[in-house]
Write a structure and sequence with these properties.
11 helices, 218 residues, mainly alpha
Length: 218
């Protein structure tokens, strides 16, 4: 895969509409993370011998990756855990763009389950690829299986196009802020619930600590 192909986004009206929805309401750091998640998910797909158009729909994969953190958007309602809020908003947006209810539900599942290891992997290709893309962007602590699929040069190309901008801290800040607004947003033993508890107790999360020694750092 050439460097141009590696960082290319789908040039479709749906992909453009998704970017126009997400970019204004997420921090640059979280937006870049969402786009890198798609680029890394595509790397994982190649490693798993999954082909766009045969095994998965590239537009749906892009939509699921780009909107997977929409639940922490600045203009959200913030009255459910962020994974579910983002999934609900993404599915509603997609059906409004003419995407079938069945396809929108695939995206819903991929977003709602992206923090649920052991469950996402059993809910179809889209869920697997979003989970793998997120894990790759965390560089290891989230259980990435395909870190060795990327050369340093390829990783540099992705990070040059979409810089990290202290992604771990920025994303954790957004999740904790959303979780703190309502007890329903942060059930115990969920990612938002544990992030909120760890920040309140220790000042930073275990994820933030672990990512300091990951392949990409913060």
């Amino acid at each position: 895969m050439t460097e141009t192909d590696l960082i290319a986004l789908p040039g479709t009206p749906l992909a453009e509409a998704v970017v126009n929805l997400v970019r204004p309401v997420e921090t640059p750091s979280v937006f870049n993370h969402s786009i890198r998640t798609f680029l890394f998910a595509r790397v994982a797909a190649a490693r798993l011998a999954l082909l766009a158009g045969r095994d998965y729909d590239q537009d749906l994969l892009f939509a699921a990756c780009a909107m997977h953190d929409l639940g922490v958007a600045s203009d959200g309602r913030h009255d459910r855990r962020f994974e579910v809020e983002g999934a609900d908003r993404a599915a509603e947006f997609l059906t409004g763009q003419g995407v079938s209810t069945k396809d929108a539900d695939q995206v819903w599942q991929a977003i709602a389950l992206h923090t649920s290891p052991g469950i996402a992997e059993r809910r179809g290709v889209l869920c697997v690829l979003v989970r793998e893309g997120v894990a790759l962007d965390f560089g290891g602590p989230a259980g990435a299986n395909h870190l060795d699929a990327l050369t340093d040069e390829q990783a540099d190309a992705i990070h040059t196009a979409y810089p990290r901008l202290e992604m771990i801290r920025s994303l954790t800040d957004a999740i904790v802020a959303q979780a703190a607004k309502n007890p329903a947003n942060a059930p115990r033993y969920t990612i938002p619930g544990e992030f909120l508890r760890e920040r309140e107790t220790y000042g930073r999360t275990r994820m933030e600590h672990a990512c300091g020694s990951s392949r990409w750092g913060n």
